[in-house]
Sequence to fold (168 residues):
Amino acid sequence: MGDLWEAVSAVSAGVGTLFVIAASFFAYSQIKEARLSRHVQLLLSFQEKYHAPAARRFRHRLISGEFGSPETFDPSRMSSEDFHAFWQLHDQLELLGVLVEQRLLSFDLILACFHRSPPQVWAAIEPYIVERRNHASPLESRHFERLVQRYKNSPLLQTEYWDRQNVL
Fold:
């Protein structure tokens, strides 16, 4: 009779272990799905603002050099509306960099949805930002710059991509 109870106990422990393993896999998949859902929700919210018509027009004007070459770009010479649009764009890209660094958005998603704009904007304003770091805050645009560096380090973006950055 003792052997029977030992066998039942062993089977029960085995079934319990299998249940815990299965529950762990289920919990992991739920966490993974929740993370993916959060990524998509964040990305859609960001994209809605970033691709609004006024934001697109401002980016095009900036990248096309309407406000000066990268070496002469100075937001203080802009109208108040353009000045606001510039800092809004800058802050959006800085935030995008923070979200990628904190792994709240994956870089692959950013690359798929914003494959040209961040490096183009960075190229248009880099000298201005470097100057601001010297006079305003040494932390200016650090996350945005690291985001662009991820673009530069991405094996998906070959020479042709970088050769075409000046195409609007």
Q: What stands out?
A: The mean pLDDT is 84. The radius of gyration is 25 Å. Helices lie at 2-50, 53-63, 80-101, 107-113, 117-135, 142-153, 159-163. The CA atoms of residues 3 and 127 lie 80 Å apart.
